[in-house]
Task: structure prediction
Amino acid sequence: DTGVSQDPRHKITKRGQNVTFRCDPISEHNRLYWYRQTLGQGPEFLTYFQNEAQLEKSRLLSDRFSAERPKGSFSTLEIQRTEQGDSAMYLCASSDMDNNQPQHFGDGTRLSIL
Amino acid sequence: AQTVTQSQPEMSVQEAETVTLSCTYDTSESDYYLFWYKQPPSRQMILVIRQEAYKQQNATENRFSVNFQKAAKSFSLKISDSQLGDAAMYFCAYRPRSDGSEKLVFGKGTKLTVNP
Result:
């Protein structure tokens, strides 16, 4: 069990650029989640996959955001035309399909918009 | 909509002492999970303890225990014999068990400082 891995750890970009983050879940976990955490706040849910199917999306996930999990393993989160308000920590978590299992979090990707 | 409230933005405790972090939540569901997660500075969030709402017995994990009051919708975390490594942000979180949603709803967190 190598834990949830996120890449990169930190991304600095100019406003208007596109960015993509990657998450590799714990290998046997078929559920994968994305959250966003801004300074001084708790994480807020963005979206959730079970295997390759995106089953739930938050209203926070505007049309500039897209997430994929094409083969039911790793996932990517892309933000197009970044804005100042997108600056945040983006957290990925994974869990087993058993409802009793908790979500395990990665270290996160910190996005800074210049 | 479910909400989680942590009314203490910051708390401090002396090493070896006991501290209690508060959490209240609002839900119309009867079956759900409650969690406390710990987030050390610049490190990943880890699960501290979990409570299933249908269980009346309060969960315990070594020095960590909860006081779950379902009628009052209260879920506090007690840390006994506090250690320097306990210093972190602590987040209370809620997840319904049966409405098909898998998302965790988090509070804003409590920053715990442990003084030597």
In short: Chain A has a mean pLDDT of 92.
